[in-house]
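Progress narrative, Year 2. Work on Alkylhydroperoxidase from Amycolatopsis vancoresmycina DSM 44592 advanced from sequence curation to structure prediction during this period.
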Amino acid sequence: MEPRIDLFTTDTGARLAKRFAGLGQVLERSPLPKRTQELVSLRASQINGCGWCLDMHAKEAAAAGETAVRLALVAAWREATVFTEAERAALALAEEGTRLADAAEGVSDGTWARVREHYDDEQVAALVALVALINAANRLAVIVHQKGGSYEAGMFAAAAAG
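Result:
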């Protein structure tokens, strides 16, 4: 399938991209660890089948020092020994926050309690916003058939700054 439209070439799309990038910069400056942010973005993007976002966040994670082993195991994080308890809590929140329609309760009290064990209020605010933002980005890219493979680390931030 070919991309349906290049949102970035429209005035509206360009303005939206700039706002998304601005929100991304707020999250990057938050105390939530960059590697955790990338793992969460990868997991939500896997669930949503977003090739563009998987490409972006795998490359950004690698640029931030993430290992190939951990990147490969994100999809099966429950069955892997390479993630911390804090990362597991964040990944659980990412999954439950992404699959809201699949569970009547949304994010479970158990997952929320684990998140609160490992993250302070500032980090929780960033984590919740990140889950919402990556899901919105996934939906935009999937709807228009934005393909993965051409992203280069830092590309989105550079384009948004220009």
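The chain has a mean pLDDT of 92. Residues 8-161 form a domain with the AhpD-like fold (CATH 1.20.1290.10).
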